Amino acid sequence: MPHSEKLDDQERIVERVQRHGNDIWACLTAQGVATRAPSPDPRTLRSFSLGEVAEILGVSGSYLRQLSIDGLGPTPELGTAGRRSYTLGQINELRDYLASSRPKEALKFCPRRREGDKLQIISVVAGPASTTTSFYLAQGLALQGFRVLAIDLDSHGSLSRMFGYYSFGYPVHNETMYAAIRYDEHQESIQSVIQHTLFDGLDLVPGSAELSCFEEESSRRFRSENLRYSDASIRMVSALKEVEAYYDVVVLSCGDGGFLTAGAYEAATGVLVTVRPELPEIVSMTSSLYSFTHFVALIERAGRIVNHDFFKYLVTMHDPRDVSQQKVVASLRGCVGDDLLTATVWQSDAIRQAWNKGRSLYELSSGAVGRSSYEQAMKSLNSANAEIMDIMSEVWGRAPFYVSLASRSTTAGKASSESRG
Which of 38, 170, 281, 410 sits at a 20 to 30 Å CA gap from 68? Predict the structure, then answer.
């Protein structure tokens, strides 16, 4: 074992590390990328081919082509050989046009909640690929025409990085959910921390290290004020009520914070638990279930009833060719029954490659990661999202149809031959 350094040597190390931090910070500042608040990556979203738009909207490519020829709806961009493409904003314009011109199918084209429909708040429990699940769920919902708010409750800002928001240093400027739920006079409206994303209809409340401040403050109050755990969670509920009118769905991506997670559970109308189909992961997942029941018990002890419309499990990072995983999935289904989603998200090189590129598969075309791998990954992602959207539809008293629509589709990123142009 090496000899420990003298105290004065340790002080020099501290000074050297501080100098390193200052020098790195100065370098980042000179490059224009340093900030102590989450800042966006100025990337843009690609346009979608006519075939992709046809699949997203559930209509034929020939129908969309004729609309364009007749000058109805938004004007697509014409590319090589006259191929048409649409931005996501234009896709949403198409939704509005189709909903008004085909009123019997208005809900299909414009699925936003109507008067009397409750805001859907889905808490994604921290677990295997839970951040990726939150990311693709939020983007998938936006592609289907929902108004979505994604909230990163992870102090590491994992979901925020996927959206291209990065934070450096220790942010102290009220740029996360902390601003809306803090206890002191610096509390602000949640609207002050909502950021737009490159997806039309999808906003983000970034996460960063300042979320740990809420955990620390709540912990002190928990110890000193007669275990008032539930007083912390109700702050999340109150904050979300401020923006209830502007969104159809809120996706809460939970981190490892206990008080923030309790708030997510109390605010939620539905809970999604991700699980990898391996026995050690199943064992780990059970601790999340016990934590959930513990948090709910504390909240109800304070006199507030917690009612969720659904509590579902999603198998992620699944290799359907692995016999041992098949057995684990079957065993899990035997325990939780229909609460386990039928669709599973496959372990995919395409998803991994997209992450390495700082993008999602929805942001890329199939050629960017390999067509076969892309199509398989998109099929599993879209199938899982479709099940969740059908559950939402049932909560709103609507007939489910997203699963059947997904089963008829090829992929969101592949135009069929008859739909090109």
Answer: 410
